[in-house]
Amino acid sequence: MKIIPFVKNLLTSPARSLRKIEVKNGLINSPQFNREIANVYRMDIDNAGDYYSSPVHYFKELGDIQVDIFDFKNSADTNLEEQISNNALIIGGGGLLNRKSFKFQMKTFEALAGRGKKTVLWGVGHNSKNKKDFRKLESYNIKTEKFGLAGTRDYSLSKEWVPCVSCLNEVFDKSYSAIRETGIILHKKTLKNSRIAAAFKDYPLISNSQDLEQFVEFIGTSENIITDSYHAMYWGILLNKKVVVVPNSSKFFDFKYAPVISSFENCIEDLKKAEVIDGVLEECRERNRLFAEKVFNYLEI
């Protein structure tokens, strides 16, 4: 008998909740070590922004231990507790703060930091889906000062601004020539909305599930970008594009260089408000290299 997704989620949610509690209790009650480095992030190969937001892809000094932050609810992963307990943690990047699906994990890391675990937040940011938080979010749902080092991608909330480390990817060193005026990049979930997809039927359009090279090439060969994807916004700004954002989360509202904020109904018209911002790629790379030096000193590597 086929179980529809809603019913399946009802059946699996208690098991996932129990698994998370078991993992947290196991970690909190276990001796903690800082032998090597575990790089914790959302390892979603179908979301280039999430996948390439970890510094493990850019600094060989960070080793090769990688942990998917979603593994906390995976009962099949027996290695998780060992990887977390034995190693210092680099957490991020991505929108891991003020988001229900990551709250449990981030609170666990906060507790471990209080027990002597060496912990680094690298390029994480807030990601609240509550529209009341758009433009108004004033604090994180964890105490970032409890971590050994904390560099966050949100400009006004950060004591140390560290934009997403994906700026270091060599794909941004390539030269691109514009072949279209406007490119649309929508989150893969947005594309399931037939009304929104139909509204852009006359424009070149991709989803954020493209591989990194295709994703960035599409941005590079467009003069303007309209998107509801954080990394499409970020990478568009890095590549000197005019960017208009249709926000679905608080994450769009505190980048240092604000894009034009719009709606699906008005975004084409609002392109005339967008401007090119020069020098952002170099600035973001420099911020990450300087932060990397602090991390290496802190972790003694």
Q: How many domain modules?
A: 2
Regions with little confidence, pLDDT below 50 for 5+ residues: none
Beta-strand portion reads 15-25%
Mean pLDDT across the residues is: 94
Protein name: Polysaccharide pyruvyl transferase family protein
GO molecular function: transferase activity
Organism: Antarcticibacterium flavum
Domain Polysaccharide pyruvyl transferase: 54-250
Question: What's the short version?
Answer:
With about 300 residues, the chain is of the alpha/beta class. It is built from nine helices and eleven strands. The relative contact order is 0.13.
Task: Explain what this protein looks like in three dimensions.
- The protein has two domains: 12-168 and 283-299, Rossmann fold; 170-280, 3-Layer(aba) Sandwich (Rossmann fold).
- The chain is 32% helix and 17% strand.
- The chain has helices spanning 5-28, 48-51, 80-86, 100-113, 194-199, 212-220, 230-238, 267-270, 280-299; strands spanning 37-41, 65-68, 88-91, 94-97, 119-126, 149-152, 180-186, 205-207, 222-227, 242-245, 260-261.
- The strands form two sheets. Strands 1, 2, 3, 4, 5 and 6 form a six-stranded parallel beta sheet that branches. Strands 8-7-9-10-11 form a five-stranded parallel beta sheet.
- It is globular, with a radius of gyration of 20 Å.
- The N and C termini lie far apart (54 Å).
- Residues 54-250 form the Polysaccharide pyruvyl transferase domain.
- Keywords: Transferase.
- It comes from Antarcticibacterium flavum.
- One of its GO terms (molecular function) is transferase activity.
